[in-house]
Amino acid sequence: MKIDQITLHHLRMKLQAPFATSFGSIDTRDCILIEINSKGLSGWGECVADRDPGYAWETCGTARHILPDFLIPEIMGKDIQDAFDFQQRVAHVRGHQMAKAGLEMAIWDLQGQAQGLSLRDLLGGRRTRVDVGVSVGLQESPEALVRTVEEYLSQGYRRVKLKIKPGRDVGDVRAVREQFPDLRLQVDANSAYSLDTAAALLPLDDFDLLLIEQPLAEDDLWDHSQLQKQFRTPLCLDESITAPRHARQALEMGACRIVNIKQGRVGGLLNVVHIHDLCQAQGVPVWCGGMLETGVGRAANLALASLPNFSLPGDISATDRYYAEDITNEVFTLNADSTIDVPDGPGLGVSIDRRALESVTLKRLELP
Ligand code: OSB
Ligand code: MG
Fold first, then answer.
1. Which of 2, 163, 165, 229 is catalytic?
2. What's this model's pTM, rounded to 2 decimal places?
């Protein structure tokens, strides 16, 4: 695939409702959409770095530096075979997993279109629909949280993740658990605790949670292994796992019993498959996390969640949970059994609504 031209689209999209976590609240979401043109085909990828360095250190600003200055020059005008070829060419660039993953996604999309194969087929996924849940941000009060959860349940979601932070943890979870005793429920702290302050979370062990996600700092694998010993509930790592070897080390140390996999955080879909396979070989379940993606990133998430060891519901909700209008022509809807269909068209299986894209574009960079 000869890479002729690449356009970076910096988008800002209004969320349906503010999304609050332990690291802040947003009512709009930025991302860099990447368009790669090759012989009349357009491949699309989504770089999921946020506007602010709250979840991770990468931002739209770092992506707007690393992509044109270091990553894109490695492929511009060249004949790129596939994602593996791409990753070898950019291996000398340290870190910047989200920037790499966004470009890699566009290359998968191109390859799928060129070969007439869906991303699911390229990755070896089997499911045609995947189990999904909804990630619910911090609300004003436990009562408001219960009402918000109730609204999502009425829409058909059968698994709910609650965001927690110090002072808004056990009380919030208790309120939801009392109201919905049988709900598949899990929590996500986004690194808001230390080994000491996490003692406040011990009562969560009695709420029959599926998992407790990323209580401690991203670079604290060891402390997670100490904390896991204090809980019956499985810990799950998100921020800490930015490469396959971190997944291996986390499992060796007992730092978690479940892994959240996000293609952006781990540097692309090739690494997703590696982490998936490593966990599968050890009987460790994985699930697909989300970054409030547009239809482009959502299509990729659905394809990766179709792999066999994605055995817990993903943070992949319907389009209308995030945006009133998306930038893809395709809209993802929730089936009655809390699943979403995996796209089966070539590549990502989505097409871009140019008018909608234009209306949310802050800045465009056309290369060369
Ligand atoms: O930690 O999983 C997270 C969104 C942005 C950044 C980090 C996280 C999240 C979510 C939302 O929980 C998941 C979704 O896309 O629905
Ligand atoms: Mg998380």
1. 163
2. 0.98
